[in-house]
Batch of 3 targets.
Target 1
Amino acid sequence: MKNFLVALLVFLVWSVIGLWIYSFGHTSNFAKNDAVQDISAMETASPIAQKDTISIASEIVNIEKTPVPKEFQIFSIDEQILFESNQTIAIKKDSSQVNLPTELSVLPSLLASYLFEHPGQEIHITSNYSPSAKLQTPNIGEQRGNSFKKLLLDEGADVNQIVIKPVLTTANFETDDSLQNAMTFSFKLLDRNRIENHKSAIPDLITFYPTYNFDEVIANKKLTAFSDSVVSLHEAHPELTIKVIGHTDHIGASSENYIRGLKSARQIRWYLVTKGGIDRKNIIALSRGETEPLLRDGRPASRKENARIEIQFSEKK
């Protein structure tokens, strides 16, 4: 009897353990099924919701990849970007100077190279200036354009491919009288009619009759006006050399007249350099003495006509 009770007790214990194991395994399967159903539900969710999610993500990617336009850009004739920078060309209201920021220091060289590679095109330099700027001849916008033009010429650009366009602007200057993005550039097809008209605008000769005190040229309003006209032509044609030629009458020895004519030419050259601001290396002083008179009748009035200064423009050698 005792053995029977022990056996029954063992049977009951193992039965309880078996039921517990069975119950645990069944619960796990239910959990797994629920998890699978949840995943399946996510995968078979509304196509519209999935599409919206993908579309939004795609738009975010597109926004990130869209480049931000630079402040300063130069385009080719076919609207391709040739050069761009976050720095711009700034100017001062009453200054003709063009100071390029570091990032734009290579610009003249790049533009000159492009012009060389495209001889059928020309560059238009638009130079803004304020109506409140000091009145000058040529205007301050044209002077700035010519300053940049000189940078291009120094890099070997052809003068016939450069066009200056001064433009009055009502843009607001900063408190320090500076203006950003004051100069822009564009390319056009080469205008050969413009080139011919431009060449014909250069006078073959400018004649000036100085006022003398013995052999010294007197600085007066007449000389100032003459200097201004020469400076204006030089700024429009910085690629040309200025020849200042002194002429005299026939009174005295020819060698003395040659020296007298050269002295007058040098005094005019000095004035154009120191007062007009023309670079000394762009002016040559010469003398013809008495060898090229305008009139030969020997009258006093004719002698005055012969004693003169002539200005000629020539290509640099």
Target 2
Amino acid sequence: MVPGPTSVPDRILRAALINYGSGDLEEDFFLHYLETEKKLQQLFATRNRVVVMTGEGMIALWSALKSTLHPGDKVLAVTSGVFGTGIGEMAKSIGCEVQYVNHPYDGPAADFARIEEALSLFQPKMITAVHCETPSGVMNPLVPLGALKKKYHVPLLYVDAVASVGGEYINVDDNHIDLCLGGTQKVLSLPANAAFLSVSPAAWDVAADVNYCGYDALLPFQHAPENRFFPYTPSWVNIAQLFEAASVILDEGLDETIRRHRYNAALVRETMIEYGYRLFVRDPDYAASTVSAFYLPEQASWEMFDKKLRSKGLVVGGSYGPLAGKIFRLGHMGSQSDTNLIDMTLEVFNNFKRESFLNDHS
């Protein structure tokens, strides 16, 4: 029950058993790519082009930054966790002037008065934000941020939706998101072999001005499928698996998939609290529908906690940065947002309550 990479369903595994032809040469590949793009547009709720790259989700995060920012450009990083802070550090590493609007890690990035003040005074070229802070189980609101982006005429809004797309509403166009980043190993339940991002017309214009060159450059993808020419040999098997994964969600229906994720997330939170575990997020209204974080039992180290759960056949996630050794996480996303699987997971915790950890530890 780790929060990614999630278990890969048989339907998606079978898509990798075909000996595909060359993505550089075969017309069927380009048609397959375009059909996959249409499905990803539905998950994002966007009319914008969606680019699929070969590589783990970080390639999309770096691509969107390096392709649209010059050294010296101003970036406002709205943060409430490890990943939001990290994106600001990434922008700083390429020479940008970065200002942070930090929030406590156990709550949402929702102090919009401070965010608005920063936008007015700092006047950034880009706002960066994370929709779902996976290390802490927080789901950050996008609607007010998009409204402020529009109000202050910020050229670019960059949103990391790697751990939410498919399991929560993104509404890229309605929220004025220019660069929305997705990964395959979370809700989509694929191997960590591809990343994708939606790109607004404004972002394409900025990318043309920056004209970044590199393996992760965004601009060469703008007309790649129509021109039947990609900047590097595309991985057909990745596209095939991504097509199937998006189809799984859309066959069920995006609304129903999100409803299922929200229901199972609430089931996990409420049951774990009943068993004596303390939810990390202060306000459950901002708890993620794809991952839940809880404080470790008092006096229990992460190493001991992890070892004991593994002995019962259950693997969960720890966390990173300042949260390492303090909390643990249950990933109920994608194929793991399954009530039967969650019931079995909760049964392990029911039989192995906090007291047993403390007694064994002492």
Target 3
Amino acid sequence: MMKVKSILVSQPKPETEKSPYFDLAQKYNIKVDFRPFIHIEGIDAKDFRKDRISILNHTAVIFTSRSAADHFFRICGEMRVTVPESMKYFCISESIAYYLQKYVQYRKRKIFHGKQTFIDLTEIIKKHREEYFMLPCSDIHKDEISDYLDQQKIRYTKTVMFKTVTSNLKDLSNVNYDILTFFSPTGVKSLFKNFPKFKQNQTRIAAFGPSTAKAVEDAKLTLNIYAPTPEAPSMTMALENYIKAPDKAPAVVSYPKPVLSSKAVIVAKSPAVASKKVINVVKSVKSRKAVKASVKVSKSKKVSKPVKSVKRKKGK
């Protein structure tokens, strides 16, 4: 494999200079460019009203990203909804919890957070079952969170407040980089939407997460770098491991296959399959009723045994 001289990161450029990407560029004298392949657009308040969801009916909000927090308070502002001070906030990480200071006063009894994943937050949510949660999310989201809330019988409302759309990359004269990094399936779709004739050639592809890796595979691209792994929990670490010894790296890397939740499988099925399922259920119900009816008929048709009359002997 050729030596790595340039990397395109399909994310916004970090706001601080302490990013590990800058350290990587300086350490190995590599050109690292940043360009988001996707971006977030907020749902209009008019469209949100169509769902007839009352924000004030809820007593708590679950935030899985800063975008979710931004668009929740944006919608509240556009609809002139005053969020009560009693509202509680459950954040997937501490950084998101501190980010809420942009909108509300930080209080420990009011704002709760996990370590980094939703699994960390679940134990806290289970202790507040009495709350009625709101879950702001994007139009493209994972079902694992709502599946868990359903399993635990937590009262909540999932509401789409923003959407993920592909960015216009036409101003890029080309995408001739040694490595392209992707962080979501939508990012891979954006590449081919902007460059339908893209050919991988000698370009190495890096993907973060099993869903992104599968999207790379589905696009008939070769996956060369994958994260997270026990050896490389972050994308920058995976890139550095590859840069150190590109010749020793495998031509194609493996990745854990994404597990579809039962809910996701049901949603993915076509209406025809769903209707067939309903018909089968109706048929089974009818058959059960028919069996019960036949049992009743058979019981009624049973010939009752003649009762022998016993003559009572008269006493002497």
